[in-house]
């Protein structure tokens, strides 16, 4: 996660998205796929599509930083759990 985070920081996305946080990474047992969950400070589900458009480049750059038998195919998924928790918290306030 650390290496992918530094790649996102260096290569990033187009301006205007603000801080992108990697909230979780789930890799399949055979190392074929890696689901990377991301969130932003402002609600922005479109960020996952923009990152997925650059996923092959990120995979290539990641392979230069770490040595693995097989580099998984990366798929970015927008994590809206913080927004859900915030809504639940608002509902629970008196």
Description:
The chain has 94 residues and is α+β, with helices and mostly antiparallel strands. The chain contains four helices and three strands. Helix 1 crosses helix 3 (55-65). It is elongated. The model has no long low-confidence stretch (mean pLDDT 84).
Lay out the secondary structure.
Blueprint: H1 2-11, E1 20-27, E2 33-40, H2 46-53, H3 55-65, E3 73-78, H4 81-92
In a few lines, what is going on in this structure?
With 94 residues, the protein is an alpha+beta fold. It has helices at residues 2-11, 46-53, 55-65, 81-92, and strands spanning 20-27, 33-40, 73-78. The chain has one domain (2-92): K homology (KH) domain (GMP Synthetase, Chain A, domain 3, 2-Layer Sandwich), CATH 3.30.300.20.
């Amino acid at each position: 996660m650390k290496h992918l985070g530094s790649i996102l920081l260096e290569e990033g996305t187009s301006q205007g998205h603000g801080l992108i946080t990697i909230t979780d990474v789930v890799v399949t047992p055979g190392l074929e796929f890696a689901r990377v969950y991301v969130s932003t400070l402002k609600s922005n589900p479109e960020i996952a599509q923009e990152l997925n458009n650059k996923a092959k480049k990120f995979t290539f750059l990641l392979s230069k930083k770490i040595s693995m038998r097989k580099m998984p195919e990366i798929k970015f998924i927008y994590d809206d759990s913080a927004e859900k928790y915030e809504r639940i918290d608002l509902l629970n306030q008196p």
